[in-house]
TrEMBL record, chain B:
<keyword id="KW-1003">Cell membrane</keyword>
<dbReference type="GO" id="GO:0030288">
    <property type="term" value="C:outer membrane-bounded periplasmic space"/>
</dbReference>
<dbReference type="InterPro" id="IPR026265">
    <property type="entry name" value="LptC"/>
</dbReference>
<dbReference type="GO" id="GO:0015221">
    <property type="term" value="F:lipopolysaccharide transmembrane transporter activity"/>
</dbReference>
<protein>
    <submittedName>
        <fullName>LPS export ABC transporter periplasmic protein LptC</fullName>
    </submittedName>
</protein>
<keyword id="KW-0997">Cell inner membrane</keyword>
<dbReference type="InterPro" id="IPR052363">
    <property type="entry name" value="LPS_export_LptC"/>
</dbReference>
<keyword id="KW-0812">Transmembrane</keyword>
<dbReference type="GO" id="GO:0005886">
    <property type="term" value="C:plasma membrane"/>
</dbReference>
<dbReference type="Pfam" id="PF06835">
    <property type="entry name" value="LptC"/>
</dbReference>
<dbReference type="GO" id="GO:0017089">
    <property type="term" value="F:glycolipid transfer activity"/>
</dbReference>
<keyword id="KW-1133">Transmembrane helix</keyword>
<keyword id="KW-0472">Membrane</keyword>
<dbReference type="InterPro" id="IPR010664">
    <property type="entry name" value="LipoPS_assembly_LptC-rel"/>
</dbReference>
C-alpha cells in the first residue's frame, strides 16, 4: 500500500531542532514510522520545508534497521529520499526477504515496490542467497 | 393586698419591657449594616500591591522584553514581584517577537528572570507555538526552559516531549526526553 501521503512520525529520547534552518536532529532509540514502514536508528536528521510536507532530507545514522511487511534491511547509515520513495543503505548493508538475503556495498531499497538494487565495491562484492521454492519464491528481496 | 399585687404587676411589666428592649437592640445591631470594607491590610511581607503593572528590560539601549500583568505584589524580603494574568513579550530584530502568556509569574529583580506558571503559552511571530504548565525565562541567555511536558509546533513540525530549552534569539529548540514528532505526509 502506498504510504507516500502519510505523515512521518518519529519518537526518540531527545530532540535538537533549529527552527530557523528547519532542521531537526532526533537522538537516542529513534523510531520513525510512515505507513507500514518502520525505521530504527541511533540518530536521525531531518530537513523539512516550511509546511512539513517537503522533507528534503531524512538521514539515519548508527544501527539502522528497516521493517516493512516481510522485508527487513540493515546498515550503519541510510538516506531516505521521500520524493523518490527509496532508501539508500550503506555500511555493510543487508536486505532480508523471508530467508533470502542480499548484501553488497550499497543497497537501494524501494519502499513502494518489492524491489532492491545492490551495487558492489572492491571489497564488498554483491552476494545473494536465494532459497528456491521458499515461501516467498519469485519475490525479489 | 391590692398594693402588693400592683407592685408585682409593675415589676413584671418593667421586666417585659427590658427584655423587649434588649431583643430590639440586638436585632438592630445585627442588621445595623456592615462597616465599610477597609482596604485589606497587606500581608506584612508585601511592600507594594499594584494593578496594571508594566516592566521593561532594556540592554545597551535595545529593548529586550516587556512584562505586564493585571495585578502585582512586590515582596521586600525576597526582592521578587508576584504577577497575575501575565504577558511577557520578548523582542528581537532578527528572530522576531515572542509572546508568552500565563496565569501567574514571579519576577526576580536581582536576576531579571521570570518564572511563569498556569496555562503557559508561547507564540512566535514566525509561526512557532508551544504550551506547557510552567516556564522560566532566563534573561541573560534569552532562553525559555521547562521541566514539564510541552507541546511545540513550528510550521512543518509538531512535537511533544518532557523538558524543553528554547533560545528565542536563534530559535533553537531542545526537548530533553520522551520526544514524539510528526511531519506532514507528502501531498
Amino acid at each position: 500500500a502506498s504510504t507516500s501521503s502519510e505523515p512521518l512520525k518519529i519518537k526518540s529520547n531527545e530532540l535538537h531542532a533549529d527552527n530557523e534552518k528547519k532542521t531537526a536532529v532526533f537522538e537516542g532509540k529513534v523510531v520513525a514510522r510512515q505507513g507500514d514502514m518502520t525505521l530504527l536508528a541511533d540518530r536521525v536528521v531531518i530537513s523539512y520545508g516550511a509546511d512539513g510536507h517537503e522533507l528534503s532530507r531524512v538521514e539515519a545514522f548508527g544501527n539502522v534497521r528497516i521493517h516493512q511487511g516481510t522485508r527487513q534491511a540493515f546498515g550503519s547509515h541510510a538516506t531516505y529520499d521521500n520524493k523518490a520513495r527509496k532508501i539508500i543503505l550503506d555500511g555493510s548493508p543487508k536486505v532480508l526477504q523471508g530467508e533470502d538475503v542480499i548484501t553488497g556495498k550499497v543497497i537501494t531499497y524501494y519502499v513502494d515496490e518489492q524491489k532492491s538494487e545492490v551495487t558492489g565495491g572492491p571489497n564488498e562484492r554483491v552476494e545473494a542467497v536465494i532459497h528456491p521454492g521458499g515461501k516467498d519464491a519469485g519475490k525479489k528481496p | 393586698m391590692d398594693k402588693a399585687n400592683n407592685i408585682k404587676r409593675l415589676l413584671a411589666f418593667v421586666a417585659v419591657v427590658a427584655a423587649l428592649a434588649l431583643i430590639v437592640t440586638i436585632f438592630v445591631r445585627s442588621r445595623g449594616g456592615k462597616a465599610p470594607a477597609l482596604v485589606p491590610r497587606l500581608p506584612v511581607k508585601v511592600g507594594v500591591s499594584l494593578s496594571g503593572i508594566h516592566f521593561t528590560e532594556t540592554r545597551e539601549g535595545v529593548k529586550k522584553w516587556d512584562l505586564s500583568a493585571d495585578r502585582a505584589e512586590y515582596n521586600r524580603e525576597t526582592n521578587k514581584t508576584s504577577l497575575f494574568k501575565v504577558r511577557l513579550l520578548i523582542t528581537d530584530k532578527s528572530a522576531g517577537d515572542f509572546k508568552v502568556t500565563a496565569e501567574r509569574a514571579e519576577y526576580d529583580h536581582a536576576t531579571k528572570n521570570v518564572r511563569l506558571t498556569g496555562h503557559v503559552e508561547g507564540d512566535g511571530s514566525k509561526g512557532t507555538h508551544f504550551a506547557t504548565e510552567s516556564l522560566t525565562y532566563l534573561a541573560a541567555p534569552s532562553r525559555l526552559e521547562t521541566g514539564d511536558k510541552v507541546n511545540f509546533s513550528d510550521r512543518g513540525m509538531t512535537v511533544e516531549g518532557v523538558g524543553m530549552k528554547f533560545w528565542t534569539q536563534t530559535r533553537r529548540l531542545q526537548l530533553l526526553s520522551a520526544v514524539a514528532a510528526e511531519f506532514g505526509g507528502r501531498r
